[in-house]
Design goal:
With 111 residues, this protein is of the alpha+beta class. The protein has a domain at 41-105. 28% of the residues lie in helices and 26% in strands. It is built from 2 helices and 4 strands; from the N terminus they run H-H-E-E-E-E. It has a 4-stranded antiparallel sheet.
């Protein structure tokens, strides 16, 4: 290199975002799950069976509750009356491939 010439600047190398594509696929998959879950993640027959076995009466199922059951996939919304006649509402939660269901009761009673 000549002493009269200034040093050439190197072009910065483009950093490849290796994690960008999997992150986009993951977020897209999660959004598809949230949008489609109300159509396939409701087990009304199973919820009726569980609630009837626990003594609930006047049972009405009302579809899917997105955040009602934590990590359980099946979350069937319901309103009913307890064995003592108190009105309640909540979710029947179930994870696929596990034969156990849980009943989650909301803190506020239905109007």
């Amino acid at each position: 290199m000549n002493a009269d010439q200034p040093a050439r600047k190197r072009k910065p190398e483009k950093k490849k975002n290796i994690l960008l594509v999997p992150a986009i696929i993951g977020v897209t998959g999660f959004l598809v799950f949230l949008i489609s879950a109300p159509h396939w993640a409701v087990d009304e027959a199973g919820a009726m069976r569980v609630l009837t076995a626990q003594g609930y009466t006047d049972i009405k199922t009302g579809g899917y509750d997105t955040f009602g059951c934590g990590f359980d996939i099946f979350a069937t919304r319901f309103t009913a009356r307890t064995a003592k006649g108190y009105p309640v509402r909540g979710n029947v939660c179930k994870t696929p491939y596990v034969s156990k269901s849980s009943i989650e009761i909301d803190d506020t009673p239905p109007q």
